[in-house]
UniProtKB/TrEMBL annotation:
<feature type="transmembrane region" description="Helical">
    <location>
        <begin position="50"/>
        <end position="68"/>
    </location>
</feature>
<feature type="transmembrane region" description="Helical">
    <location>
        <begin position="80"/>
        <end position="99"/>
    </location>
</feature>
<dbReference type="Pfam" id="PF06182">
    <property type="entry name" value="ABC2_membrane_6"/>
</dbReference>
<feature type="transmembrane region" description="Helical">
    <location>
        <begin position="163"/>
        <end position="184"/>
    </location>
</feature>
<protein>
    <recommendedName>
        <fullName>ABC transporter permease</fullName>
    </recommendedName>
</protein>
<dbReference type="InterPro" id="IPR010390">
    <property type="entry name" value="ABC-2_transporter-like"/>
</dbReference>
<keyword id="KW-0472">Membrane</keyword>
<feature type="transmembrane region" description="Helical">
    <location>
        <begin position="196"/>
        <end position="214"/>
    </location>
</feature>
<feature type="transmembrane region" description="Helical">
    <location>
        <begin position="252"/>
        <end position="273"/>
    </location>
</feature>
<keyword id="KW-0812">Transmembrane</keyword>
<keyword id="KW-1133">Transmembrane helix</keyword>
<feature type="transmembrane region" description="Helical">
    <location>
        <begin position="134"/>
        <end position="156"/>
    </location>
</feature>
Length: 286
């Protein structure tokens, strides 16, 4: 093709910034547009999150009222209310459940088409998921937060860097969540049916991520073990603790650094698993 460059920029986990920004942005925008078409589902989902927000908030406020000093695990009533309402908004942004696209494509054999594309499969799922998360930040995060502000006294951060740090923490939470969902779905390469691992993930992710109650309600040794040895607290607990300034500033920043480390490790693990899966497909003649 004289005078035309028909090449498509390739995105590689090893060199993610080489000729890749335009492709990554286009994929992210496609993820945003995809979820923007489901307007009724967005409204219904926001309403459901708000209803459960009232239930969770009153339960945790009752716990605080029944504890001497009114500060269970160091959380004040305003911090607990903020934990609940911001958590209800983040639940859809981080998206712990409901994603089976990769395992479905593996079962149907359509995953072979992904290997022919000029974008690495991990990036091919990560970029649209970031676009989905941006859509959720606008249309699923804001409504519960507004309702919480109307009906409850929420905690307002006092440190100037808390909100920017919270935004960075959300990005790492979305990346880490997608990586874990990718790994769980990728078990279909070997099991051919990932419904068992996906069900186990669904049952455990909410509890271990701090959705139902703050993980600091657990014994100290168990909470620390979950934070250091697993990526789960980084999906919800860390962003929420950062926003409500549960810890001193150095520890607040340290939690986000730990979150970033886990996100990088999980993405690298996704690349390794995908590479081994591709070798298995070749061995099977697929």
């Amino acid at each position: 093709m004289d005078g035309l460059d028909a090449r498509v920029p390739q995105i590689s986990p090893r060199r993610p910034f080489r000729d890749s920004f335009a492709t990554f942005g286009a994929l992210a925008w496609s993820g945003f547009q995809r979820y923007a078409t489901y307007r009724q589902a967005t409204i219904a989902g926001s309403f459901t999150n708000i209803v459960f927000g009232f239930l969770r908030c009153y339960v945790l406020l009752a716990v605080a009222a029944g504890v001497a000093g009114g500060r269970p695990a160091g959380y004040g009533p305003e911090q607990l209310a903020t934990f609940v309402w911001v958590g209800q908004g983040l639940l859809t942004v981080v998206s712990l459940w409901g994603w089976t696209e990769l395992s479905d494509r593996i079962r149907s054999g359509e995953v072979t088409a992904d290997l022919l594309r000029p974008v690495h499969p991990v990036i091919g799922y990560l970029a649209p998921d970031l676009g989905r998360a941006w859509h959720a930040m606008i249309f699923r995060f804001v409504p519960p937060l507004v309702v919480g502000l109307i009906f409850f006294d929420l905690y307002l951060p006092g440190r100037w860097f808390t909100v920017p740090l919270f935004a960075v923490s959300i990005v790492f939470a979305v990346i880490g969540s997608l990586a874990m969902r990718f790994l769980v779905n990728a078990t279909a390469y070997w099991l051919h049916d990932a419904r068992g691992p996906i069900m186990l993930w669904t049952l455990s992710a909410g509890v271990l991520a701090g959705l139902y109650f703050p993980l600091r309600f657990l014994p100290d040794w168990l909470a620390v073990t979950l934070w250091v040895a697993t990526p789960f607290p980084g999906f919800l607990q860390t962003p929420l603790d950062v926003l409500i300034e549960r810890d001193a500033a150095p520890l607040q920043a340290g939690l986000v650094v730990l979150q970033a480390v886990w996100a990088a490790v999980l993405l690298a693990l996704c690349a390794v698993v995908q590479r081994r899966a591709e070798r298995r497909l070749v061995a099977q003649g697929g």
